[in-house]
């Protein structure tokens, strides 16, 4: 039986398919090709979780010291300025399809973990310029399809370093604080959950709207192209009056400083492993002392209908009056989190946190984002010379896998 | 403490934990005292090594953040809009001042000798805690922010403020009249947490989209070229990705590597310079709400406490685990360079 290739363990072997040693990690020789499903697309690998594995597993990332089987990891880590075996793709000698690269267990991809080259971490996203609303729209569609977070009440900006397209985010602490307040006021568990659900739905509708409507940029003088700034029939400019009435829930919790009993007193704690959060005591003991202030002056009456009225009653807002009136049924592709929420991601790879460590993809960097008002120009891809360079400097490493023409 | 359930791989479970969610926890800079703030309106002081509760302070509303001043006192930020000073020995607290909305973050700056708080009223306030109580005496300044403040972090003379709407303001504490830099987050979704690197060159920012951005203060091209972002705390299931928020970031005081905790219940340790993950701890029962390394980096406190990212629902009980940290988990691995 042939030996395992040490370079491959290390993360890169310049011989690729031609190599006379076996390209596989120990204990996984059979499953090499299947590993793309398990590859750790975060790209970090090394030890997952269990001490006792240290000695056994050849550390495929070739940190050297731990790996029992491959102590010396010398040979040409060529052209790897970052030292993480950035390998195959940059080596023009390398034969083999790009597809094959991705199946290598600890491959250090610099695309953001995507299985396909046209992955979600498309080069566009690294430095998107809002010159073409269609492109913006595509970016948005891509993001929503692949990276929709579990948390619904988030803001969203499709271009990094640029203002949000969807504003009025709420943190879960704010949601929780409001729920606790409601409970204190005597709202039933049912209606609290209902209220939360409404908030979620209205936010989902905002996202849906952004996705389906032609993209209109938020008004922002710092963006280059103003030419796409059409009058938006839907836009409801939201002023931020600058007062300290940021709280979308509108009723600051004040207290005269007494030490009040926790209304959600969880005296007999959870015996079982699962407990409803403090709302379990809702029926009882809602007597305490959170003194409700009279509504602060800055609150509009509409605030009380914050939940469920939909649309932009999210008071906090930055300067961009970005649109998004609540338009209609929340028929969104994303289900509310009541059930298990799964968001589509076509490029997913299972980062199985197993110990036989699988792929490592490096943390890949965003392209430099100069902090001036204009987006920096980035030559996104047609410059093939980048692939032929011997050594990359930080900041110029391409984020996508190389095109076929240079791989051959 | 013999809680039958907690497997040793999670660490030792702290006795007498708060009765509701944990909003933050911090180790002291001088000892293994641990300060814990909770949604049950309490701030608790533990001796983490001895696993003993030493003091408890009740507030008028859920406590959203806490920090040490020294081993005899600390500060808290609560949803009843108050900022309080906590005196450990006497178990007493007094109100240093108030905001107009829940106070979300509190940090004490040794460099400036001031307490800094951020609130959902869209302001940052600086306080001088040596003064007598009462806002007139203690408030040094109020600084408006573009949005509600979600997270702040200090290093040296620099303060980083992350707000709703993905704004980030960077201040020099010596001149708070205006931010030194105004940025938008490099990530696309809501910011969860911001933490400065111990070496003072930049900060890590995490969001709800299972990503962390590594940023640098220096605006030169060379420095900005080093910035990057990485995906983490995601799970692939049935062909799709579940994208978990990253709630907590904690830097190891000695090695400069950092741990992140997410709503997936995992704690990962990363080497930011080499761009690699160093370790992943066993999965915790529920979301990781907060993380803190002890001053020597030998202990890691993990708050496994549902953070409401799916709204109101039944959840695992809230617990704090203190785990010993092994060097292998946090020490950067040396790069193996090719032979010349």
From TrEMBL, chain A:
Residues 86-103, 116-128, 222-288, 300-320, 342-381 have a biased composition (Polar residues). InterPro entries: Nucleoporin_NUP42, Znf_CCCH, Znf_CCCH_sf. Residues 4-26 form the C3H1-type domain. Residues 56-133, 222-381 are annotated as: Disordered. The keyword Zinc applies. The keyword Metal-binding applies. Keywords: Metal-binding, Nucleus, Zinc, Zinc-finger. Residues 56-77, 321-340 have a biased composition (Low complexity). It comes from the Eukaryota. A zinc finger (C3H1-type) spans 4-26. It is found in: Nucleus. PANTHER family: NUCLEOPORIN NUP42, NUCLEOPORIN-LIKE PROTEIN 2. This is C3H1-type domain-containing protein. It comes from Stylosanthes scabra.
Automatic annotation (TrEMBL), chain B:
Transmembrane segments: none annotated. InterPro entries: WD40/YVTN_repeat-like_dom_sf, WD40_PAC1, WD40_repeat_dom_sf, WD40_rpt. It holds the Pfam family WD40. Gene3D superfamilies: YVTN repeat-like/Quinoprotein amine dehydrogenase. The keyword Repeat applies. Keywords: Repeat, WD repeat. WD repeats lie at residues 96-128, 246-280. PANTHER family: MRNA EXPORT FACTOR AND BUB3. This is Mitotic checkpoint protein BUB3.1. The lineage of its organism: Eukaryota, Viridiplantae, Streptophyta, Embryophyta, Tracheophyta.
């Amino acid at each position: 039986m042939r030996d395992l290739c040490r370079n491959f363990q290390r993360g890169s072997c310049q011989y690729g398919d031609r190599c006379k040693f076996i390209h596989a990690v120990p204990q996984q020789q059979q499953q090499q090709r299947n590993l793309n499903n398990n590859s750790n697309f975060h790209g970090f690998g090394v030890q997952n979780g269990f001490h006792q594995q240290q000695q056994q597993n050849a550390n495929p990332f070739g940190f050297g010291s731990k790996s029992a089987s491959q102590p010396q990891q010398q040979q040409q880590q060529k052209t790897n300025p970052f030292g993480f075996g950035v390998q195959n793709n940059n080596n023009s000698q390398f034969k083999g399809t790009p597809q094959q690269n991705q199946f290598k267990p600890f491959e250090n991809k610099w695309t953001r973990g995507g299985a396909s080259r046209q992955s979600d971490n498309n080069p566009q996203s690294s430095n998107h310029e809002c010159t073409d609303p269609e492109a913006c729209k595509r970016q948005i569609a891509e993001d929503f399809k692949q990276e929709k977070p579990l948390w619904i009440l988030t803001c969203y900006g499709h271009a990094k370093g640029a203002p949000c397209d969807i504003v009025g985010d709420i943190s879960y602490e704010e949601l929780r604080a409001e729920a606790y307040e409601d409970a204190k006021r005597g709202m039933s568990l049912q209606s609290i959950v209902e209220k939360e659900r409404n908030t979620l739905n209205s936010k989902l509708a905002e996202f849906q709207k952004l996705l389906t409507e032609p993209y209109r940029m938020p008004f922002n003088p710092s963006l280059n192209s103003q030419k796409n700034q059409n009058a938006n029939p839907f836009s409801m400019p939201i002023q931020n009056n600058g007062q300290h009435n940021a709280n979308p829930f509108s009723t600051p919790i004040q207290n005269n400083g007494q030490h009040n009993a926790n209304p959600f007193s969880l005296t007999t704690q959870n015996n079982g492993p699962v407990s409803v959060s403090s709302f379990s005591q809702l029926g009882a003991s809602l007597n305490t002392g959170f003194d409700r202030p009279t509504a602060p002056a800055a609150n509009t009456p509409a605030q009380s209908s914050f939940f469920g009225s939909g649309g932009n009653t999210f008071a906090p807002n930055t300067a961009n009056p970005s649109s998004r009136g609540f338009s209609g049924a929340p028929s969104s592709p994303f289900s509310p989190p009541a059930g298990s929420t799964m968001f589509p991601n076509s490029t997913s790879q299972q980062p199985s946190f197993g110990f036989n460590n699988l792929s490592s993809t490096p943390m890949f960097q965003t392209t430099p984002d100069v902090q001036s008002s204009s987006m920096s120009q980035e030559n996104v891809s047609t410059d093939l010379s980048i692939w032929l360079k011997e050594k990359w400097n930080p900041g110029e490493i391409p984020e996508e896998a190389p095109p076929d023409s240079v791989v051959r | 403490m013999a809680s039958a359930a907690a497997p040793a791989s999670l660490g030792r479970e702290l006795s007498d934990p708060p009765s509701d969610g944990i909003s933050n926890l911090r180790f002291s800079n001088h000892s293994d005292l641990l300060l814990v703030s909770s949604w049950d309106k309490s701030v608790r002081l533990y001796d983490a090594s001895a696993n003993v509760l030493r003091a408890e302070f009740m507030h008028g509303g859920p406590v959203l953040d806490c920090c040490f001043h020294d081993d005899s006192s600390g500060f808290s930020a609560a949803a009843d809009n108050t900022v309080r000073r906590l005196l450990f020995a006497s178990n007493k607290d007094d109100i240093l001042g108030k905001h107009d909305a829940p106070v979300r973050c509190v940090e004490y700056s040794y460099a400036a000798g001031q307490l800094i708080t951020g609130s959902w009223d869209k302001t940052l306030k600086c306080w001088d805690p040596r003064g007598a109580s009462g806002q007139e005496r203690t408030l040094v300044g109020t600084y408006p922010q573009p949005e509600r403040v979600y997270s702040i972090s200090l290093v040296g003379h620099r303060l980083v403020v992350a707000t709703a709407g993905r704004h980030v303001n960077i201040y020099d504490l010596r001149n708070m009249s205006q931010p030194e830099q105004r940025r938008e987050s490099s990530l696309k979704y809501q910011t969860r947490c911001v933490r400065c690197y111990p070496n003072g060159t930049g900060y890590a920012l995490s969001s709800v989209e299972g990503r962390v951005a590594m940023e640098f203060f220096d605006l030169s091209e060379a420095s900005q070229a080093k910035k990057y972002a990485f995906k983490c705390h995601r799970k692939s299931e049935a062909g799709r990705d579940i994208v978990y928020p990253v709630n907590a970031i904690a830097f190891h005081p000695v090695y400069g590597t950092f741990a992140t905790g997410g709503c997936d219940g995992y704690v990962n340790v990363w080497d930011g310079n080499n761009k690699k993950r160093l370790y992943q701890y066993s999965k915790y029962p529920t979301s990781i709400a907060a993380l803190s390394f002890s001053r020597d980096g030998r202990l890691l406190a993990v708050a496994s406490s549902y953070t409401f990212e799916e709204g109101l629902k039944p959840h695992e009980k809230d617990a704090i685990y203190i785990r010993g940290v092994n060097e292998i988990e946090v020490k950067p691995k040396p790069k193996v360079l090719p032979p010349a």
